[in-house]
Structure prediction request, 91 residues.
Amino acid sequence: MKTVTGKEVAEALCNTLNNFNNKEEREQFVKEICNQHRSLQQQTIGLLMEVVKAFAEKRLNNDYDLRNDAATKLCSEIHKAFGDDFRMPFI
Prediction:
Protein backbone atom coordinates (compact mmCIF):
# COMPACT_ATOMS: atom_id res chain seq x y z
CA MET A 1 0.00 0.00 0.00
CA LYS A 2 1.34 3.43 -0.99
CA THR A 3 1.95 5.82 1.89
CA VAL A 4 0.05 9.07 1.38
CA THR A 5 0.78 12.44 2.89
CA GLY A 6 -1.56 14.53 4.99
CA LYS A 7 -1.76 17.00 2.11
CA GLU A 8 -2.83 14.25 -0.31
CA VAL A 9 -5.51 12.99 2.08
CA ALA A 10 -6.82 16.53 2.68
CA GLU A 11 -6.94 17.27 -1.05
CA ALA A 12 -8.72 13.98 -1.79
CA LEU A 13 -11.29 14.66 0.94
CA CYS A 14 -11.90 18.23 -0.24
CA ASN A 15 -12.17 17.15 -3.88
CA THR A 16 -14.71 14.53 -2.83
CA LEU A 17 -16.68 16.99 -0.70
CA ASN A 18 -16.86 19.35 -3.66
CA ASN A 19 -19.13 16.80 -5.38
CA PHE A 20 -20.66 15.14 -2.30
CA ASN A 21 -24.10 16.74 -2.08
CA ASN A 22 -26.12 13.53 -2.09
CA LYS A 23 -27.72 12.88 1.33
CA GLU A 24 -27.54 9.10 0.91
CA GLU A 25 -23.82 9.23 0.09
CA ARG A 26 -23.15 11.37 3.17
CA GLU A 27 -25.13 8.94 5.35
CA GLN A 28 -23.19 6.02 3.87
CA PHE A 29 -19.90 7.81 4.62
CA VAL A 30 -20.91 8.39 8.24
CA LYS A 31 -22.04 4.77 8.61
CA GLU A 32 -18.79 3.44 7.15
CA ILE A 33 -16.64 5.63 9.40
CA CYS A 34 -18.65 4.47 12.44
CA ASN A 35 -18.20 0.83 11.43
CA GLN A 36 -14.40 1.00 11.22
CA HIS A 37 -12.21 -0.70 13.80
CA ARG A 38 -12.84 0.89 17.19
CA SER A 39 -9.24 2.07 17.56
CA LEU A 40 -9.59 3.79 14.18
CA GLN A 41 -12.86 5.36 15.32
CA GLN A 42 -10.96 6.84 18.25
CA GLN A 43 -8.17 8.08 15.95
CA THR A 44 -10.75 9.59 13.58
CA ILE A 45 -12.42 11.62 16.32
CA GLY A 46 -9.03 12.77 17.61
CA LEU A 47 -8.11 13.99 14.12
CA LEU A 48 -11.47 15.71 13.67
CA MET A 49 -11.00 17.49 17.00
CA GLU A 50 -7.62 18.76 15.77
CA VAL A 51 -9.47 20.15 12.73
CA VAL A 52 -12.03 21.76 15.08
CA LYS A 53 -9.20 23.41 17.02
CA ALA A 54 -7.60 24.70 13.80
CA PHE A 55 -10.88 26.25 12.64
CA ALA A 56 -11.43 27.79 16.08
CA GLU A 57 -7.97 29.39 15.78
CA LYS A 58 -8.93 30.76 12.35
CA ARG A 59 -11.88 32.50 13.99
CA LEU A 60 -9.73 33.81 16.83
CA ASN A 61 -7.29 35.24 14.27
CA ASN A 62 -10.11 36.73 12.13
CA ASP A 63 -9.06 34.43 9.29
CA TYR A 64 -12.55 33.77 7.93
CA ASP A 65 -15.25 35.31 5.78
CA LEU A 66 -18.89 34.53 4.95
CA ARG A 67 -17.91 31.29 3.18
CA ASN A 68 -16.58 29.69 6.36
CA ASP A 69 -18.17 31.89 9.04
CA ALA A 70 -20.55 29.21 10.30
CA ALA A 71 -17.81 26.56 10.37
CA THR A 72 -15.38 28.70 12.33
CA LYS A 73 -18.13 29.84 14.72
CA LEU A 74 -19.26 26.27 15.45
CA CYS A 75 -15.69 25.06 15.87
CA SER A 76 -14.97 27.95 18.20
CA GLU A 77 -17.92 26.94 20.39
CA ILE A 78 -16.87 23.28 20.41
CA HIS A 79 -13.30 24.25 21.30
CA LYS A 80 -14.54 26.50 24.11
CA ALA A 81 -16.46 23.54 25.54
CA PHE A 82 -13.56 21.08 25.37
CA GLY A 83 -10.42 23.21 25.22
CA ASP A 84 -7.40 21.13 24.42
CA ASP A 85 -8.65 18.24 26.58
CA PHE A 86 -9.63 15.97 23.71
CA ARG A 87 -6.69 13.64 23.25
CA MET A 88 -7.78 10.17 22.26
CA PRO A 89 -5.71 7.27 23.56
CA PHE A 90 -4.58 4.66 21.04
CA ILE A 91 -5.62 1.28 22.41
Remarks:
- The chain is about 65% helix and 0% strand.
